[in-house]
């Protein structure tokens, strides 16, 4: 699964979703995680809050989880509507540590929120979008 991290340095989760200048995107499986992409966002002068959120949603559209320092309620609602789960972590959490913890969760018994996300991801891959399974 693809996992994004709101960051300004590519090392720590240290950015608010709506102001994040960069998303470090990793591919995370039971076998480990690897950096896929550093997605830099350019703020358009005069861009309103909705525009900032839209550009960030586009940047992480292929992700299942997004780790953030903070996310506003309306942005969180828009992210979850896109079937992306926002995960708040302490300011300055190392991305490598969060990747490692996510791998460990996948190897063991994932918490209910993650199991639900993974089930939805599997259904999307199979094409079960009518909601009759599960």
Automatic annotation (TrEMBL):
Please cite one Gene Ontology biological process associated with this protein.
nitrogen fixation
Specify whether Nucleus is a keyword of the entry. Answer: no
Going by the UniProt record, its keywords in alphabetical order are: Nitrogen fixation
The cross-references to InterPro entries, in alphabetical order and at most eight, read: Di-Nase_FeMo-co_biosynth (IPR003731), DiNase_FeMo-co_biosyn_sf (IPR036105), NifX (IPR013480), NifX-like (IPR034169), NifX/NifY_domain (IPR051840)
Q: Does the keyword Zinc apply?
A: no
Q: Which domain of life is it from?
A: Bacteria
Q: Where is the Dinitrogenase iron-molybdenum cofactor biosynthesis domain?
A: 9-101
Instruction: Tell me one GO molecular function of this protein.
Output: metal cluster binding
Q: Which CDD domains match?
A: NifX
Family (UniProt): Belongs to the NifX/NifY family.
Entry protein name: Nitrogen fixation protein NifX
Native organism: Paenibacillus donghaensis
